[in-house]
Each structure stands twice: as C-alpha cells, then as structure tokens.
Amino acid sequence: MISKRKALIGAIVIVLVTTLLNFTIGNLVAVKMGQKVVITRSTFDYYTEINQKYNKLFTLQDYLLNNYYKEIDEEALVEGAIIGMFESVGDPYTAYMTEKEFKEMMTRTHGSYGGIGVIVTPGEDGLVTVVSPIEDTPGERAGIITGDKIISVDGSLVSGNRLEDAVELMKGKPGTNVKLGIVREGLNEPFDVQIRREEIRLKTVRSDVLENNIGYIRISMFDEQTAKDFKNHLNDLMKKNISGLILDLRNNPGGLLSQCVEIADELLGEQVIVYTEDRQGKRVEEKSKKSHIDIPLAVLVNKGSASASEILAGAIKDVDRGTIIGSTTFGKGLVQQVKPLNDGSGFKYTVSEYFTPKGINIHGTGIDPHISVELPEEVRTETVVDRSKDTQLKKAIEVLKEKL
C-alpha cells in the first residue's frame, strides 16, 4: 500500500509545474495571447532540469490517467501522493492529515472527544503501540496498559503505518462499543477487549495531601488547560503549608511543550529547562525564572511517561532539583510542529530534537530514575492502584521524609 502511494508522489509536482513546463520546455520562444514571450537561458535550463528530474513521475501519471481501465479521480491521486510523500520520510511522527483527521486531532488537543481515552504511537515493529491509557477513561478501566499492541479494531486489522486510521476506528459516539484485538508482552495469544466509548473530557491535574503533610500532584497529560490547573492546585497545596511535593508523571504521554515549560517554571530556579536543535544546528532554549517553590521534590515516572513529561523530569534530574523515582521512561526526544492548510487539512512534522539541560537526548533510551522501583506484578495491570500497594509512591514518601 505504501509503495503505491510513494509512486504517486510526483502528482503534487505535476500539478504545480506541468503548466510551466508545457510553456517553456523545448520552446525558447513561446507565444502567449498573440505576442512573443522570450525567456532567459537560466529559466530554460531550470525547467529543463525539473523535467529531467521528474520525468518518470510525469510519465507514470500520464500513463495512469490515459490507460487505467476506469477514470481516475485526480484529486484522490494528489491526496495519495501527499500521504505517500509524508510516509516516505520514515518518521511515524511526521504525517499528513485530511480535513477530518486534522479537525479531530485539534479537538483532542483542546481536551474533549468521543472515544476510549488511549494514547497510541507507531511501534518499531510497525504495530499500534499504547503509550498509556488516560487516567479514569474507558481504556484504563478496561485494563489497557502501556506497551499493549493493538492489532485490530472491530475486526479490522490496523497498523502503525496508518495510525490515524486506527485512531479514527477507536473513536466514535459515546455509548457505543468497540472491540480491540490486543497483543501483550508475556502472553502467548492475542485477546479481545470490549470497551464502551465515552465523551472524554480530560481533567489532567488532580492533587491531595498525604502523610507528613506531603503534597501530591498528578498530571495525566499536557493539554491547553494543564498549566493553569497545575498552578491552581499548587497554590492550594502551598496555602496548606505542605512540607514537600510529589509530582506524579506516570503514564503521562506528553502533549504541549508550552504547558510543560510553564509548569517547570514553578518548580525550578533560573536555568535552562530544555533546548531544541534543528537540522541546521539552530538552538532554541526555554528558561525558567528565578522565583519558584522551595520545598523538597520527588517525581514519579514509568515507561508510560513520554515526551513533555520526560522534558520536565529530565530538567528536574539534570539540576538536582528533585529525586526521580520509578522506572525508565518511554524515550521520545523529538519535537513536532502542526501546520494547518487552507483547505482545512494539515500536517505535523518533526522539526527538531530536544535536549535536557545537560545536553542529553533521550530519544529511544528514556530517562533512568535516581531510584529504580517497580510496581509488584500483581498490581501492575490494575487500573487504580491501592496506595498501600503502590511501592513507587511509598518510596517517594520515604525519600521526602528523609529530607524534611
């Protein structure tokens, strides 16, 4: 399927330059509206080079349009070409989205949509891989866990190469059911999970006060409201004179970098939070201000902590602002930009890599905690872990008690 799309990439170029080629190639002097138009040698050479470079694509396009046994929709041909062009980059985070797909992605960023509440990514094995289920959503309650491979949705096979198609199948009207085919590490056979869709209204921040007056803030992902909600929760805890803070980033798949930076600004002193570098080596730094809370800090992470949550944990670790506890994070160290197009469609593409303050890029490796603690096997797949069994949280409390 992908190879067919790649073969159509030239359709885009064809649409843009065919008219100019017809006007210039082989005609140093052209006629337009009864007048002679003379072009320069450099212009002639330029379009001759284009013709030579894309001649194969032009030829194949013409052949399909003239010889395929049915009439071909040229607009569909162009759409397929664009999709193929983005897929040929070989980066699962670089993709073209139709108008419908782009609108749905923007809806998810704003924090509300109909579906099951599972964040997925293309795995290295080509399968749709769960980064993490979103807290208190149908996916989490159904037992979906980080690392699960989704191989089918309602009987239709899905793959990481067409991630947006898989996401579209999982979404739907609240109250309807969807069946996922799952492959899980450690199990010999795939199994099915039936999930009832809901309106996913994300509440990304919640807080509590634990023993010894230790504050606890859980961030499930970074959407447009997360930084504002975090500040409100943090202010409420500080008014209660908490003695220390546990920041829980477990199963946080990331989100908006801007929100992560705002939150880091509340926790760190004056320093670099993260910096990015593009292909030209241009560096852009995000820095925090001098003012910040000055209490002991512990951060909980696991293999479901990805992207923006790794940036926050990495900054805290690099400057020794707090103790990182749990297991090695997911390992996504690439930065994407999203661009809308005039027809309502859009695309996302990897624009740069990000680095922790010490210059570490964690893509593919993740962030190792200061203290490695695994959840017991019997509670690892539980959707809501009893705090009395949460060994990672208990370790964080223990660490903070020693610092008080």
Task: Give a summary of the structure in a few sentences.
By secondary structure, the protein is an alpha+beta fold.
Helix content: 25-40%
CATH architecture of the largest domain, please? Alpha-Beta Complex
* Distance N to C terminus: 60 Å
CATH level-3 fold name of the largest domain: 2-enoyl-CoA Hydratase, Chain A, domain 1
CATH superfamily of the largest domain: 2-enoyl-CoA Hydratase, Chain A, domain 1
The beta-strand count equals 21
Query: What is the total domain count?
Result: 3
Rg calculated over all Cα atoms: 26 Å
H/I helix tally: 12
| Major beta sheet summary | 6 strands, antiparallel
Average pLDDT score: 87
Poorly predicted tracts of residues: 1-32
Return the CATH class of the largest domain.
Alpha Beta
Shape summary: globular
Secondary-structure-based class equals alpha+beta
The proportion of strand residues reads 25-35%
Question: Would you kindly provide a written description of the structure presented here, covering whatever features stand out?
Answer:
34% of the residues lie in helices and 27% in strands. The chain has 404 residues and is α+β, with helices and mostly antiparallel strands. It folds into three domains: 2-87, no CATH class; 112-201, Roll (Pdz3 Domain); 205-403, 2-enoyl-CoA Hydratase, Chain A, domain 1 (Alpha-Beta Complex). The strands form five sheets. Strands 5, 6, 7, 8, 9 and 10 form a six-stranded antiparallel beta sheet that branches. A six-stranded mixed beta sheet has the order 12-13-14-17-18-21, sandwiched between helices. Helix 2 (10-24) packs across helix 4, helix 8 (226-239) runs parallel beside helix 9 and helix 9 packs parallel to helix 10 (308-318). The chain is globular and about 85 Å long. The N and C termini lie far apart (60 Å). The model is unreliable at 1-32 (pLDDT under 50).
